[in-house]
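Review this:
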Amino acid sequence: MPRLAACLEALVPGLSAGLIRDVVVVDAGSTDQSRDLAFDMGCRVLDVGAAGRGRGTQLIAGANAAKGDWLMFLHGDCVLPQDWVSTIQAHIEQAPHHAGYFALSYDDQTAPARRIAWWANLRARCLGLPYGDQGLVISRTLYDEIGGYKPLALMEDVDLVRRLGRGRLRGLPCGVETSASRYRAGGWWFVPLRNLTLLAGFYGGVSPERLRGWYR
């Protein structure tokens, strides 16, 4: 929950700049105080319940509820830097027909964390495969044109950027910091290798439902 508070606090400059019209927080049956926190901070909270678990379903719900002409998708443990407003304003003005993603960093300055972030940014830049923890900024028009997120159990982020294609993706000149807790808990080598296996399986035609079982 502390990461969610930091995520929402970092959005405040966008409100004062008139860039953010509303903030939609999608909750899928959390058992902590996340919903209350988001509500108290002025967000619209969508409770999709346990049936809505699976990030693809949650992202669809958030996108459908959002009011603006532009959408910014963030995981609840992602925190934007202070200069993000000017970066997004420049993107909207200069590349309205492209989706933008942030450079990735972790709340951990150890060598393994820096290594994983470096590879993630290289993958996004060279292969056009930013993951969801890098955020996504996209116009409503482009989002609707490609069919939006799909209600996949896993790999909803990869599925969407594949449909976008590298030609409609743009790396933004500012970063986003996300939590490294899953790497600290699961292992700095095991988690990346597992993720690579999942990606290979997805490209090889393994269903997202089956991949989700591997993910656990």
